[in-house]
Structure formats: structure tokens, C-alpha cells
Write a structure and sequence with these properties.
mainly beta; binds beta-D-glucopyranose
Length: 351
Amino acid sequence: MSVQKTVFGRLPDGRQADLITLSNGRIEAQISNYGGIIYQLCVPDKAGKKANLILGHDGLEGYLVKGDYHGALIGRYANRIAKGRFTIDGKDYQITQNEGETALHGGVTGLNQKLWDIVELKDGEEPSLTLACFSPDGEEGFPGNLRVQVVYTVTANDGLRIEYFAQSDKKTPINLTNHAYFNLKGDPAQDILDNLLCIHADAYTPIDADSIPTGELAPVQGTPMDFTSPKPIGRDICADFAQLKKPMGYDHNYVLNASKEELPCIAEVQDPQSGRRMRVYTDQPGVQLYTANFLDGSEMGKNGVPLQQHHALCLETQNFPDSVHQPGFPDPFYGPGRDYHYTTIYQFDIG
Ligand code: BGC
């Protein structure tokens, strides 16, 4: 059980970013207060050999250029808002558009580019780090002064728990997540297409040509989208199925099955080679399965290994994308009288 803080690097304006290591003696998470990024997550394989499972860059510099949100906390609104526009109580808001006309992952400057305050570091059986950041009214076009806190904890049973809290003084959409790219092999030079994935979701939200949900909740049964029982990620990824063509793989929100449990297990990934298994628990209604489709080897990853397509998967727990426009999706608006809070755990063992 230990907590350590070291210097990660300096931002162009001279401010120092830190790197915090949380360890329970078996698994070890390294998190920076720059963007709240998970820099490394070292987990043993079936032979007890530890490796880092998170794709990303070497040092702070790689995270400063506009990248693929590696390991970062995403907000104010994870995933897409069509045309970057929405209306609240008759008033129109325009969010900065950073993907054609779309606002992706909070606009041009999201919470992933903020230097968060380190509020608390706690040692003990479950070492934790509490980060906080402030987003002023109007930032990126969003209404309301937003205060966000995220607590990262390495749990006693080998989980990385992420708890999200936010309050706004005006009604505003909130959708926070973490964008870790997991490679359970612990080898970024290998793809993850043989990983067995199961997602407890009977439906998903199909997308249009701009990757915006159409509003439909489509059944996965009988389609390549079906992960209701464990299936190698690569089995159907190249299927002749329109939804998989433009995104070049899975890049879809799954509608998680209702559960009576407070924090249900919503997905499970197993890597046959290393034996590592990751279970995901969350109380959010959706999860974005993204199979790192747009990594094309042009960005350099850790230890000089280029970041390649399908060499990782993201399971981003969230509200459904573009929920600001879809009355049939869970309500994404928070503010006075409705604070935001949820929990996700990525838990590891040998399957
Ligand atoms: C999105 C992808 C996007 C990626 C950016 C994912 O959450 O669904 O479409 O390319 O983030 O890294």
C-alpha cells in the first residue's frame, strides 16, 4: 500500500504537472493531474509478471499535442453533440465544434487538457487520489460554473475505482468518462482482436454518417454488434455490416441491461495469452466500445512503439452520446437540485 508523488513535466506556461503512483502491492496505477490521465496501470499476468496495460505516450509532451485522449478524463460532455448545439429552457447554446460541425469530448479544450488540483492523497489499504477542476460559466459554450471532482482508488481486490462528482450553478449537460485504451496483453505491439469480450447489453445506439446516434435502440441479437456472450473482438469486426464500415470497427454506445445491483458488472474482457481478465462495473446507463479504430501508427506510443489500429479497446462508461437531443435517452441535464455522481471500477484478475 503506497502513494507517491513525482514530477511529470512542465506545461508550456511553466506550471508543473505531477504523477501520482497508487499501489496495493499487486497492481499499481500512475495518474497525472494533467487531464487526470491514467499514465500506466501495471497488472500481473498468469505467471505473476507485471506489465502496463494502458496505451499512451512517453512523458508529458505526447499528451500536450492534440491526440486521441489517451487515458484522460473527458468532459464536460463525453462523446458527441450533434452540431455542437442544444437548447435549455428555450435558450440556445453553441459548443465549440472540433470534428466538422460536431462537438466531440467537450469541445476544443476539454477537461482532458486542464491541470487539475490535487485535493487529497490517501494511503492505506485502498490508496486514493482526489482531483478537482473548475470550468467557468461559458467555457467552450457550456452554461454554468462547473466544479468537478474525481477520486481514483486502487481497491483492496485489485480494481481501479473512478468516482465522478460534479455540480453546476446552472442547468447544463454533463457526461464524464475516462478514455483509457486497454491492452490486456501488456504489449502495445500486439492487437487485441483475440480478446474475449462480453457486454451485458441487449441493445446499442446505431449511428449516422457523422457518428451521431439516430435515437434508435437497436437489438444486438443476430448482428455483429452482439457481445451478450463472450466473443473474440475480431470475429465480426470486418463483417459486411453498415454500422462497422465508417468507424472501421466498433465505436458504439451499448445500452446496458437494467440491473437490480447498485454497481453491476457490465462488461468483461479476457486476454487468452496473458490470462488477464478485466471486469467493468458501473452505475451509468451506457458504455462506448471503441476498438482504437483511428490509431494508424502515425503517433508514437510508449517505448517507441507506434500506436496502431485495434491494439487496444476502450470501454468508456457514460450517458448515451447526443443525449441532449434525444428525449428517449437518459436525461443528461444537471444543475441546481441535481448534482452529478457516478462510479466505475475496472477490476483485474486471472480468468
Ligand atoms: C469516440 C471515437 C473517437 C475517439 C477519440 C471515442 O470515444 O467514440 O469516435 O475517435 O473517442 O479518441
